[in-house]
Amino acid sequence: MSQINEKTKINLSPKNLLFIVGLVATFVSMYFQLHAEVEDAKRLPARDTQVDAAIIKTSNEIEFIKAEIAEIKGQLQTMEQRLYEIQ
Predict the structure, then answer these.
(1) Over the stretch 31-65, which tens digit does the pLDDT of each residue have?
(2) For residue 61, what is the enclosing H or E element?
């Protein structure tokens, strides 16, 4: 296995050299873009806890209403059966 030292020659074609430069430039660009997006996200307001509480409350109320509707449907079915038995 050969060792890399000061006298080692690296043969790169211009095409490969441009590819490496482009790759490095792409990663540097991506880093700064990501850094800028993180800074923008830091400036955004935090989610309001009142909004979250309202969403949870509304969800619970919807579940309660669904249960009530199911109970009413059951009672209605019982009433229909009794009506048909009377006739």
Answers:
(1) 999 999 999 988 887 778 888 899 999 999 999 99
(2) helix 49-86
